[in-house]
Amino acid sequence: MNLRKKAIYLLLAWSLLVGCNQGEKAKLTFAVGGAPNELVYWEKVIGEFERQSNIRVEMLRKPSNTDDQRQSLIISLKAGMSDPDVFLMDVAWVGLFADADWLEPLGGDFDPTPFFQTVIQSVDTVNGKLIALPVYMDGGVLYYRKDLLKQAGLYGPPKTWGELLASANKVQEQMRTTNPNFYGFVWTGAQYEGLITVFMEFAGSKGGFIRDGSGIHLTSPENQSALSFMHDLIWKDKISPPNTYTTMREEEVRTYFQEGKALYERNWPYAWSLHEAEDSKVRGKTGVAPVPGPQKTTSASTLGGFHIGVSVFSDMKGAAKEFVRFVTSFAAQKEMVLTLGWNPGRQDLYRDEEVLKKAPHLQELTTVFQNSRPRPLVPYYSQISAIAQKQINAVLADKITPQMGLAEADREIEALLSRYQLR
Ligand code: GLC
After folding, report:
1. At 77, which CATH number?
2. Is the separation of the CB atoms in 57 and 319 below 8 Å?
3. Per the CB 3.0–4.6 Å rule, which of 20, 81, 331, 374 could disulfide with 76?
4. Which residue's alpha carbon is at the smallest distance from atom 6 of ligand 1?
């Protein structure tokens, strides 16, 4: 090719490129993870937003496990990348993101009054600035098979862990004659954040992370008996399967129960609409109740949920805020309850007649998470959680005793706090 021809080709290629860029609208990137049906819902929200706003959005699909989601976002944010522009965050890591200055303040024209005020104040407002909004609230709940309890002559779900054990033993024994893989109780015992959320519930309102002047620690009688109980469910009572501590996360637990192979399941409200889906084996047979406690009066579910925020590195902050406004609007949140059965972050939806008719479980769940307990709201929570996860999981794997696990967790937490001079 001669030089002239080469120059013409180059010119052509360049003008094509420029032409494309001018014609193409910039794309907003939105990072979100979750079960398959959740991602389908987000596709729908994005489609509606694109129609109304003329802003194009690309969904960056993240894993459903909260720890993996956090890791993947941290990689982009630490590198100061402009994508994703906007993302969902677990309530457990909003503090970490805010402390790292990764969240763009939403600004005064956002009205947080329709949302749960305790959550807005404790999680989403930092130094007087609104940095995120709650999309949905989670609280741990107990799913149970109404039909199997009735068959066994038991009425109503258990209120204490002791009652749960007794009833699960009875039903499991009966069910095993025809269903050898049947277990009394499935819960999230794998080494990840979900383990901490159930551990707090096994320990009840007097257990969990103890915060005092000297820092945060775990050694306490309530925590020790919770750990023994959890260990024994797998090893002694054998009402929870051996893979509880290796593979059981939300989706594994949910599908196990949904296949009709368990009496009780500890999970979050998202599982409700899936259990009630047409292809579910437990459709119409499932009840939902508050999680039991060590005693009736000490039952406390763990506060969960996801919040939406804008990256401080985004190069489309205006559009990202429009998306936040849309996702947290009355209409989009109503659609979310009606399709997914999730508890919206907006309180005004709990008074909506159509919502209450289609999702009657919402009313019961409202009290569940109004009384639910947050994990420690400290920026270094994820590091403390990682320490606790490792020790608690080792107890469940029968490698160490509850006492050893709690003591080792306290030693490591103490070392972490002194290393970074945190209290
Ligand atoms: C749910 C909760 C979240 C929690 C996670 C643990 O997604 O909403 O807050 O950290 O489960 O697995």
Report:
1. 3.40.190.10
2. no
3. 81
4. 194
